[in-house]
């Protein structure tokens, strides 16, 4: 994947996190739609971590190929 695509996907993930934080009812976060928003936050965080791991692995692969 292109570096621009990875950055765009990370920004979209951060946007999803920001949106889902607005849906969480902090008085009762484990009831109703709040739990769905928490799952969405967790899923977006996982996606961002996977994209960062992929980006790092591509950098390592490029260094290995240069040597």
Rg value:
16 Å
- Uncertain segments are none
Helix content: over 70%
Helix and strand content put the structural class at mainly alpha
Overall domain count? 1
What is the chain-wise order of helices and strands?
HH
Largest sheet: none
Overall morphology: elongated
Extended strand count: 0
- Mean of the pLDDT scores? 94
Distance between the ends: 22 Å
Number of DSSP helical runs: 2
Strand content: under 5%
The assembly state of the depicted protein chains is: single chain
Give structural notes.
By secondary structure, the protein is mainly alpha-helical. 82% of the residues lie in helices and 0% in strands. The protein has one domain (3-65). The chain is built from two helices and no strands. The longest helix is centred in the C-terminal third of the chain and has 34 residues, at 33-66. It is elongated, with a radius of gyration of 16 Å. It starts with a helix and ends with a helix.
How are the secondary structure elements laid out?
Elements: H1 3-23, H2 33-66
Q: What does this entry show, briefly?
A:
The protein has 67 residues and is mainly α. The protein has helices spanning 3-23, 33-66. The chain has one domain.
Key phrases:
mainly alpha, single chain, 67 residues, transmembrane helix, transmembrane, elongated
